[in-house]
């Protein structure tokens, strides 16, 4: 992973972490900041994030080391739910449904930020089911032209070496013919 980390340090991307109040996410954010791997953007309530930073003894400062998107009152939310409405209106989603969806779903906030170019990557899924988060990402980004099947991959960074496990969550069809359709 050293070459990947070295490249990350050179290009310093903005990474939005959807569950920014979660302790595991805050520890991961500390690693990103300490190692200079990315500029984190946390979705969450600023007061909760600051309280947990103190509780955990983490040495980061909101606004300096990372950005916070307040998932209760960010001024960009009208633009975010408007964009989500434009994506989803042909699927029967009303403006009010789009507004409620964005305000109540940190993974959707992260996906819209990525879609708008406000972040270079997103990480979500530390809370809830894989399929909840997958549906959010699929709805916002869809598939590229000609693709009808998605795949997932997990990376395990182990002392014995790195292991990658492919398609553990998305496809129920285990026939080889469906594998050939993966992008």
Task: Classify the oligomer.
Answer: single chain
Strand-and-helix sequence, N→C?
A: HEHEHEHHHEHEEH
Query: What is the helical fraction, as a range of percent?
Result: 40-55%
Number of helices: 8
Strand content is 15-25%
Could you list the spans in which at least 5 consecutive residues all have pLDDT below 50? none
- What is the strand arrangement across the widest sheet? 3-2-1-4
CATH class of the largest domain: Alpha Beta
Shape: globular
The number of distinct structural domains comes to 2
Question: What is the level-2 CATH architecture name of the largest domain?
Answer: 3-Layer(aba) Sandwich
The average pLDDT value, as a whole number, equals 90
* Rg on CA atoms, Å: 18 Å
Q: Largest beta sheet, briefly?
A: 4 strands, parallel
Concise synopsis of the structure shown:
With 183 residues, the chain is of the alpha/beta class. It contains 8 helices and 6 strands.
Which characteristics define this entry?
single chain; 183 residues; alpha/beta; Rossmann fold; 2 domains; 4-stranded parallel β-sheet; two-stranded antiparallel sheet; 6 strands; 16% strand
Overview of this protein structure:
The two termini are 24 Å apart. With 183 residues, the protein is an alpha/beta fold. It has two domains: 2-142, Rossmann fold (3-Layer(aba) Sandwich); 148-183, no CATH class. The mean pLDDT is 90. It has helices spanning 2-11, 23-35, 46-56, 77-88, 95-103, 106-115, 130-141, 176-179; strands at residues 13-17, 38-43, 67-69, 121-123, 153-158, 161-166. The longest helix has 13 residues, at 23-35. A hairpin with a 2-residue loop joins strand 5 and strand 6. One of its GO terms (molecular function) is acyltransferase activity.
């Amino acid at each position: 992973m050293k070459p990947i980390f070295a490249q990350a340090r050179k290009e310093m991307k903005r990474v939005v972490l959807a569950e920014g109040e979660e302790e595991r996410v805050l520890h991961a954010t500390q690693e990103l900041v300490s190692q200079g791997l990315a500029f984190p953007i946390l979705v969450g309530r600023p007061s909760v994030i600051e309280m947990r930073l103190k509780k955990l003894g983490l040495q980061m400062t909101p606004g300096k080391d990372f950005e916070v998107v307040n998932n209760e009152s960010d001024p960009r939310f009208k633009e975010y739910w408007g964009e989500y409405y434009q994506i989803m209106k042909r699927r029967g989603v009303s403006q009010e449904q789009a507004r409620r969806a964005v305000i109540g779903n940190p993974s959707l906030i992260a996906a819209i930020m990525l879609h708008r170019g406000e972040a270079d990557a997103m990480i979500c899924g530390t809370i809830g089911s894989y399929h909840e988060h997958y549906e959010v990402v699929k709805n916002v980004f869809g598939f590229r032209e000609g693709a009808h099947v998605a795949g997932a991959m997990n990376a395990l960074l182990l002392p014995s070496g790195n292991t990658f496990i492919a398609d553990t969550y998305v496809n129920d069809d285990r026939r080889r013919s469906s594998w050939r359709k993966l992008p």
